[in-house]
Amino acid sequence: MSVKVVDLCHTYGENSIFEFKALNNINFEVKSGELIGIIGHTGSGKSTLIQHINRLLTPTSGEIYLDELNINEKGILMKDICSKVGLVFQYPEYQLFEETVYKDIAFGPKNIGMEDIDGSVKKSMAMVGLDFETYKDKSPFELSGGQKRRVAIAGVIAMDPDILILDEPASGLDPVGRKEILDNIYKLHKDNNLTTFLVSHSMTDVCEYASKIMVYSHGELKLFDESKEVFKEVELLKEIGLSIPEGKELMLKLKEKGLDANTDLFTFEDVVKEIDNLI
Ligand SMILES: Nc1ncnc2c1ncn2[C@@H]1O[C@H](COP(=O)(O)OP(=O)(O)OP(=O)(O)O)[C@@H](O)[C@H]1O
């Protein structure tokens, strides 16, 4: 499913002394099946943006289209949007509340009136790499941080969305847990052709996975391009207060030291290969 955002503005507390413009004239188009990284400093508007894509917020002005559907048009039910757009909030494990993993994952599908609840729980658990028999009767609260997060993601996937949005899915996990969850999300996206938005503070996290990256600063979309093009804008990114991926940083340092390093590289794998070539 494609997403088109046209002239989107969002002002919190309009016409009050707390008025704050969180998004200013945002325009972009994302094709069906793309994985988009959304990067920006704290308070740049990332969460505000993603809440518009599943209509949790109403634009102050502007439009959002999912394929041809203008989601804020009169008569469109919230239920219809929820079944198309799955939003996984930051630290989703804090929103787990049922006594078993099965019940927690089944909650969403039941709520939107899906028929084969059992089938969708089984399928979504398999998709996030949780064995059904091992985990279905466990309490979500006895699981590790990474496993809890998988349960929370399975609860959203179980509603069979066309678009998946994840707000900082790797935050608070150790390096192994981060890689596991991000690899799993990437696989979900690829296997199901899910249009996916990955919100992060970390360039290093998103650069390995995203086909394109959006960079937000103070409510404005500053860059939206393929990763390697975005990472060429080193000065602008530093000005905004964002670090470039560690791999690219290393390549730039090697170049400074006089080595013929390819500074267009940024993923861990590519950088390791390049270092092998250089030494
Ligand atoms: N409900 C609200 N009322 C008033 N201002 C808000 C509200 N929610 C967010 N803001 C403000 O809007 C701006 C954008 O917030 P938003 O949460 O979208 O940023 P963010 O990029 O997601 O930040 P973070 O990375 O810290 O989650 C911030 O300055 C924030 O303080």
TrEMBL record:
Q: Which UniProt keywords apply?
A: ATP-binding, Cell membrane, Membrane, Nucleotide-binding, Translocase, Transport
EC numbers, comma separated:
7.-.-.-
Spell out the SUPFAM superfamilies in the cross-references.
P-loop containing nucleoside triphosphate hydrolases
Query: What InterPro entries has UniProt attached to this entry?
Result: AAA+_ATPase, ABC_transporter-like_ATP-bd, ABC_transporter-like_CS, ABC_transpr_CbiO/EcfA_su, ECF_ABC_transporter_ATP-bd, EcfA2, P-loop_NTPase
Q: What's an example of a GO molecular-function annotation for this chain? A: ATP hydrolysis activity
Class in the EC hierarchy, top level: translocase
Q: Which GO terms describe its cellular component?
A: ATP-binding cassette (ABC) transporter complex
Do the record's keywords include ATP-binding?
Answer: yes
Its annotated compartments are: Cell membrane
Q: Which residues form the ABC transporter domain?
A: 3-243
For membrane topology, the record states: Peripheral membrane protein
CDD domains for this protein: ABC_cobalt_CbiO_domain1 (cd03225)
Q: Which PROSITE patterns match?
A: ABC_TRANSPORTER_1 (PS00211), ABC_TRANSPORTER_2 (PS50893)
Protein task: ATP-binding (A) component of a common energy-coupling factor (ECF) ABC-transporter complex.
Q: How does it assemble?
A: Forms a stable energy-coupling factor (ECF) transporter complex composed of 2 membrane-embedded substrate-binding proteins (S component), 2 ATP-binding proteins (A component) and 2 transmembrane proteins (T component).
PANTHER family, A to Z:
ENERGY-COUPLING FACTOR TRANSPORTER ATP-BINDING PROTEIN ECFA2, HEAVY METAL TRANSPORTER
The family classification in the record reads: Belongs to the ABC transporter superfamily. Energy-coupling factor EcfA family.
Name used for this protein in its record: Energy-coupling factor transporter ATP-binding protein EcfA2
